[in-house]
Every structure is written in structure tokens, then in C-alpha cells.
Amino acid sequence: MEWKRVSVIGAGQMGSGIAQVAAQAGYQVVLLDTTEEQVQAGVKRIADLLARNVEKGKLSAEEREGILDRIATTTQLEEAAQEADLVIEAVVEKLEVKAEIFRRLDQCCPNHTILASNTSSLPITEIAAATKRPEQVIGMHFMNPVPVMKLVEVIRGLATSEDVFRLVVAAAERMGKTPVEVNDYPGFVSNRILMPMINEAIYAVYEGVATPEAIDQVMKLGMNHPMGPLTLADFIGLDTCLYIMETLHEGFGDSKYRPCPLLRKYVKAGWLGRKSGRGFYQYS
Ligand SMILES: CC(=O)CC(=O)SCCNC(=O)CCNC(=O)[C@H](O)C(C)(C)COP(=O)(O)OP(=O)(O)OC[C@H]1O[C@@H](n2cnc3c(N)ncnc32)[C@H](O)[C@@H]1OP(=O)(O)O
Ligand SMILES: NC(=O)C1=CN([C@@H]2O[C@H](COP(=O)(O)OP(=O)(O)OC[C@H]3O[C@@H](n4cnc5c(N)ncnc54)[C@H](OP(=O)(O)O)[C@@H]3O)[C@@H](O)[C@H]2O)C=CC1
């Protein structure tokens, strides 16, 4: 079956990026967030990035208009659900919030609709269990920034069907991505490896080993990482980093994954990184 419509739930940094690459791939997209302001902020992010691509000569002004025309917006889940072939959820990294969204999507989507989560770490099998169609639920984990990064981790839940897996791999490829299959364990592969490194960098700040600037320089100049771990943590969002560490800690029951107290403190203070204007660095 040829898919035409992709709905994206959550218009934050990941949801807006996913909506952009889906519209660039020719899908009709519906982008949803809880308020009109959030949805419009997501659309503005897409419009600005596409305008920069026009300036760079990578896209024509007509192509930009075409992509933006393919993105409709809503704040009503029923509206996002009603005609979707594929729904990709990208809301906050909390199991109870995602499970409730999947429960509602299951009720309002057509029978054929596939429900994917962009979760960074949470169990796909448990998200799927909130629906009556667990064979049509799957993990589709894009990387940030979505328009640039090539990888999509594709994660099968216990019940995910082979057909659904193949359709989702094909959709990721159509969006210009390279899908890699991984199994349903906390943090999958990407964040099981990346996030303990970031957490360790935060411990190094906490224990006074070096300043954030020095730690980032060591990893950039010494290991050729494009961003130092603390700049990357601010870029991902410190709330998201904390939720991922909590999932690893709880999921494996191993103290090596305990989140650094400084990370908790920053999140409690509302220092969420780039998106809130302050994290390990200041942005305004
Ligand atoms: C937490 C999770 O669950 C999983 C994750 O996503 S973990 C995070 C994974 N991502 C990373 O590790 C990113 C690491 N950082 C990088 O790769 C690079 O710093 C970067 C690609 C973000 C920027 O690259 P750079 O060379 O330093 O900067 P710059 O030259 O300005 O940008 C390179 C390109 O990326 C684009 N770009 C940069 N930031 C962007 C953004 N936020 N959104 C969209 N495009 C962006 C630029 O427009 C530019 O595009 P062109 O080549 O078409 O001109
Ligand atoms: N940041 C990253 O680098 C990556 C993140 N991810 C995953 O993507 C997901 C989203 O992350 P990210 O985009 O960074 O987060 P953001 O905080 O940027 O965006 C999340 C958006 O979802 C909205 N939202 C929250 N609850 C609901 C709801 N019930 N219904 C509709 N919208 C809702 C939020 O609105 P409000 O602000 O009003 O709550 C916000 O606009 C998370 O699961 C994260 O783990 C995956 C890969 C990389």
C-alpha cells in the first residue's frame, strides 16, 4: 500500500524536524501540539530552516512553498488521527504521557494506521500495550537535528509484525534516512552508549574535574566529536537527558546508570539547555 499521510504528534525540536523531512519526502503531513502557539513555533522553525536552504541555493523558493503547503496543523488529536497512514509521536519522554496518547490514537485512527514512537529510550512493548493493535506499534527513533542526521533506529516491540517493520523501514528511507534495526531494550543502542558518556561529563563538572568549556574542548579536539558532551546535552535538552538516564537506571537496575545530581538540579531549576535559554551554557 502506498502511504500518503503522516501525522506528527508534538511540534518541539524533534516533531518539527520529523514533519519537515516527511513533507520533503512528499507526504501530506499533519503536525499537532497542545497549543496553537507551540504548533506555530514548530512551523516557524521549519519555515526558517527551509528559507536558509533557499538562500544557500539548496532549494528553490517554489520547492519551499510546496513543502510548507504539505504541512497542516492542529491541536485536536482526532483531527491528526483520522486520515493518517502513519503517526509518529514525539512528545515529552514520559511513559505515562506517551501511553495515554497511544491509547487515544488507537481509538481514533483507521484500522490500517501504524503508530510509531520517536522515544529515545522507553520500552516500545509497553507503549504498544496501551493499544489494541500492538502488532502495528513500532519505534522510529530519529536523531537531532532531524534534517541533518542520517540515522533512524527502528525498534520492534514484542508484537510488531514483519509487514509493519518493512513499511516503516521503507518510509524512513523515503525520508532520506538510513534505518538500523535494534532490539527493544532501555535506551536501545544510541542512548545506551551516548547518554552515560554525557552523564559522566556532567559528573566531571560536579566533581570539579574541569569547567564545561574544558570538558567540551577535550572531547572535540581530542576525540573529534562535532560537539562536546555538555554542548550536546544542552542541544538535546537536559530534561530529555535526565529522563533517558532514569529509564536506563530503572530498566537495568544498575547503579552505573544513576543520573548525576547536578543534572537533576539543573532540570529542577528549569535550566533545560538551549530550549530554555540556559543549561551548562547561556544562550540569550
Ligand atoms: C537524544 C537522542 O535520543 C538521540 C540524539 O539525537 S543524540 C544527538 C545526535 N546528534 C549529534 O550528536 C549532533 C552532533 N553535532 C553535529 O553533528 C554538528 O554539530 C551539527 C550537524 C549539529 C552542526 O554541524 P556544524 O558543522 O557544526 O555546523 P554548521 O556548518 O552550521 O551545520 C552543518 C549543516 O547542518 C545544518 N544544521 C545545523 N544545525 C541545524 C539544526 N539545528 N537544524 C537543522 N539543520 C541544522 C546547517 O544548516 C548545515 O547545513 P548545510 O550543510 O546544508 O549548510
Ligand atoms: N532532543 C533530542 O535530541 C531527541 C529527542 N528525542 C525524543 O523525542 C521526543 C520529543 O523530544 P523533543 O522534541 O526534544 O522535546 P521538546 O520539549 O522540544 O518537544 C516536545 C513537544 O511535545 C509537546 N507535548 C507534550 N505533551 C504533549 C501531549 N500530550 N500532546 C501533544 N504534544 C505534547 C510539548 O509541548 P509543551 O512544551 O507544551 O509540553 C512540546 O512542544 C522525546 O520522546 C525525546 O526523548 C529523540 C531523539 C533526539
UniProtKB/TrEMBL annotation:
GO terms for molecular function: 3-hydroxybutyryl-CoA dehydrogenase activity. The keyword Transferase does not apply. It comes from the Bacteria. This is 3-hydroxybutyryl-CoA dehydrogenase. Pathway: Lipid metabolism; butanoate metabolism. Residues 187-283 form the 3-hydroxyacyl-CoA dehydrogenase C-terminal domain. Belongs to the 3-hydroxyacyl-CoA dehydrogenase family. Residues 6-184 form the 3-hydroxyacyl-CoA dehydrogenase NAD binding domain. Keywords: Oxidoreductase.
